[in-house]
Amino acid sequence: MFTTTITPRIGDTDGLRHINNNVVPIWFETARNPIFRIFVPNLELTYKKWNLILAHTETNYIKQIYFGYDVEIRTYVSRIGNSSFTIIQEVWQNGQLRCSGLATMVHFNFIKQKSERIPDDIRKELEKHLITEKELKIKNDKEMKENKKHIEEFDYIESDM
User: Fold this and answer.
1) How far apart are CA 75 and CA 81, in angstroms?
2) 3 state DSSP class of 13
3) How far apart are CA 32 and CA 58, in angstroms?
4) pLDDT tens digits, 94-122
């Protein structure tokens, strides 16, 4: 698992003082940098060096995310295929899972304009972060249950009353 802490900006909020839904995919892309570095350690953006394309994303909004509290983006690898792999990403705030998403990426040769097999050394690095969706659900359910014992969830909606 990779973790990235993001401090929401005031510009990330909407009129209801929660984080706008357009911001989360940008946060997810930022949190994919460690994955990018596995493939291109110096993040060189040239046709000769860059070798990933984003084939699919989806975002599931579970609970509102608020300005004024840092968020933790967690990034896992959930599937490794021949030339593609899928990652799961989550937004956690105040001890609660707020949003999740999937991204499928393809190892791609821009010069030849075709996908290529993920090399074994890169595959081994990806495997270090591999978790099934079922394993992740069990882990998250346990963590959120434990967090509720120790943290009283605070949302702006409640503070406005």
Assistant:
1) 18
2) strand
3) 14
4) 989 999 999 999 999 999 999 999 999 99
CA 15 to chain centroid: 25
- Distance CA(21)–CA(9), nearest Å, equals 14
Cβ-contact 27, 16 below 8 angstroms: no
Which of 78, 77, 72 has its CA nearest to residue 143? Answer: 72
Structure tokens at 20: 């706008």
For tokens 């969706």, what's the residue?
A: 133
- Which phi and psi angles does 55 have, rounded to 5°? -100, -30
Q: What are phi and psi of 149, to 5 degrees?
A: -70, -30
For residue 138, the tally of other CB atoms under 10 A from its CB is 11
3-state secondary structure of 19: strand
pTM: 0.89
Contact 92, 74 (CB under 8 A): yes
Residue showing tokens 């499928």: 104
User: Mind giving me the DSSP string for 67-126?
Assistant: TTS-EEEEEEEEEE-SSEEEEEEEEEETTEEEEEEEEEEEEEETTTTEE-PPPHHHHHHH
